[in-house]
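Shall we go through a protein fold together, starting from nothing but its sequence? Please make up or recall a protein chain and show it to me in full. Go ahead whenever you are ready, and we will take it from there.
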Amino acid sequence: MQEHNFDQADWRRFLKHLGEDPDRPGLIDTPNRVEKAWRDWTSGYEEDPAQVLKVFEDGAEQYNELIVIRNIPVYSHCEHHLAPFFGTATIGYLPNGKIVGLSKLTRLVDCFARRLQVQERLTTQVAEALMQHLQPKAVGVVVSCRHMCMESRGIRTAGEETITSAMLGELQPNLALRTEFLALARGG
């Protein structure tokens, strides 16, 4: 995995470029805080989705219904402006003899969200990783986020949500299964 090499002088130059005085009392520790924040916000580069997903076979052999987790927090940064975007994800899958620890789905979303992203890629990365490492019959992912690049600059439209989805395996051809997943994703 990659190592972050932040230079305090770069953050000081950035503050100067904005018209600020990096030696002003309120900004003296800002380069350290920014470095620490960006290490956390981009920690997903250091995570391996295969290591995040712990698979269980015990108890899942006979389970053949959808498993859905809703309202998984998403906090990421857009790769175009480095602006935050945030919202929730819903993940559903149809087991094929194996299940995954439920908390691992939240960790999987976080693994990809803590990288510079676009929402569309984040959605497909989560779905594809789950399909690859768990090998279920079907995977569905729905992500709904607000983007600060739209809300705080440019068009400045507050409160709009962007919704993306990825449907893999049996969710693609099976309309009944797809409808069931989407109903569960909405809370129905």
